[in-house]
Amino acid sequence: MATTVLVVEDEKEIRDLLRRYLERAGYGVVTTGSGAEALRLLGERAVDLTLLDLGLPDVDGDEVLREAREQGAVPVVVLTARTTVEDRIHGLRLGADDYVTKPFSPTEVVLRVGAVLQRARGSGKGPATAASYGGGRLRVDEARHEALLDGTPVELTPTEWGLLTKLASVPGRVYSRYELVNRVRGYEFAGYERTVDSHVKNLRHKLGPAGPGIVETVLGVGYRLGWSRDP
Length: 231
Hints:
This protein has 9 helices and 12 strands. It has helices at residues 12-24, 35-44, 61-71, 85-93, 106-121, 158-169, 177-185, 192-206, 211-214, and strands at 4-8, 28-32, 49-53, 76-80, 98-101, 130-133, 138-141, 146-149, 152-153, 175-176, 215-218, 222-225.
C-alpha cells in the first residue's frame, strides 16, 4: 500500500502542484483546502504524513496543528509564508516535524517529506535494538518504534523520538544542540539551538515528572540521558 500524504492547502494551484509531485514520487495523496475537513480526515482515515499550510481560511493553522498532535504521532510538515525564526520556533513548539517557507520548490518539499518519513520509521542503518533504563522504568524499543515509561506508552512525534533514541544510544554522553539537530532534521537549521530546546521541552513534558531527570541539561554544552542503561 502506498504511503499516504494529506495535503492541507487553501490555494488550489499549490495544492494541485504538490499532488502532482508527490504522486510522481510514488505517494498516495489526499488533499483539502479546509482545516475543519483536515481534522475530520485525520480522525477517519490513516495517513502517514500531513503537509499543513498554516494560513487556512476557516480554522487557524496553529489550531489544526495542535489538534493533529493531540490525535496522534503522524508527522506534520508545515507550509507557511511566515518566514522569521520566531515563527518557525513557534510552529516547532506546537509539534511540527519540519517547516517549509513559501515560495518553495516542490522538489524540496518531496525530499523533506521523504526525510521526515524516514526518521519516523527509523534510518534503517544497523540493527534495531530494545533497551531499558533507570532500573526498567524507561524502555526504548526501536524495532517496535515504542517508548514505555513505567509500562505506559509515550506518544512521541518523529522528532521527539529521534532525540530520545539519540540520547539513549550512549547514556550519559553529552550531545551538543548541533549534533541533535542534525540527528533529527538531517541538516543545519537557522535558529537550531532554540529549535532543539523547544523539542526537548516537549519531550520532557510527555515524559511527565521524570522528564527533567531523563533528559538532563548540561549548561553551555547540550543534553544527555540522565538515566543509565540497565545491564
